[in-house]
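Project outcomes to date are best conveyed with an example. Our students and postdoctoral researchers have been running inverse folding experiments weekly, and each run begins with a structure described purely in tokens. The record below, which covers 197 residues, was selected by the lab manager from last quarter's runs and is presented without edits.
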């Protein structure tokens, strides 16, 4: 089964790493348990592992854009130590209502807008209808469905609260609700096998 044009897009905070609010220093950044194992499984399967994260802390003035790069360097180092890697990292530093200058704007990249997933399609020839988005907010599921992908809600980060308290307000339903990123990846691999049969 050729999975080279399949991607798993992942939210960052609360999905790949601990949700601690705005990460304004690399020392505050920590992976969630089993994240390295989950991404390594994707690497071994040939599926593209892509980070897609809203980082409006820049627009809000909480930190400079360079901080995002520093945090992502730490993320890549932590994954490398576990034998895993990301194929791409996309982030949106805009906010439609807050901030100044170029950071305050309506954009196509802030989830649930699909810009980051479309960027993956453009850069890697991704078949979005065979692909997935994993996140701890229902907006991550929403962005997946906008491009024909499957959306998975993890119960880490904001996910457990969203699942238990906000379901009545959801505009979309997750294709799967996972304990964590590793559980989500295991389900994806089974789902892909079932779809290919």
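After processing, the design step wrote out the following sequence:
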């Amino acid at each position: 089964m050729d999975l080279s044009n399949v991607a798993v897009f992942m939210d960052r905070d609360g999905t790949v790493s601990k949700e601690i609010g705005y990460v304004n220093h690399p020392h505050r950044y920590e992976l969630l348990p089993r994240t390295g194992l989950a991404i390594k499984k994707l690497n071994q399967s040939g599926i593209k592992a892509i980070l897609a994260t809203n980082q409006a802390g820049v627009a809000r003035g909480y930190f400079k854009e360079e901080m995002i790069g520093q945090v992502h360097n730490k993320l890549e180092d932590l994954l490398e130590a576990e034998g895993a890697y990301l194929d791409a990292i996309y982030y949106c530093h805009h906010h439609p209502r807050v901030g100044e200058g170029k950071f305050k704007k309506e954009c196509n990249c802030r989830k649930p807008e699909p810009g980051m997933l479309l960027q993956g399609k453009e850069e890697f020839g991704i078949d979005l209808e065979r692909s997935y988005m994993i996140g701890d907010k229902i907006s991550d599921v929403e962005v997946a469905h906008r491009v024909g992908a499957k959306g998975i809600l993890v119960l880490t980060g904001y996910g457990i609260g969203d699942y238990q308290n906000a379901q009545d307000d959801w505009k979309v339903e997750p294709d799967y609700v996972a304990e964590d990123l590793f559980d989500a990846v295991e389900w994806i691999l089974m789902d892909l096998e079932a779809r290919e049969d």
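The two ends are 10 Å apart (CA to CA). The longest helix spans residues 65-80. The training component of this project remains on track.
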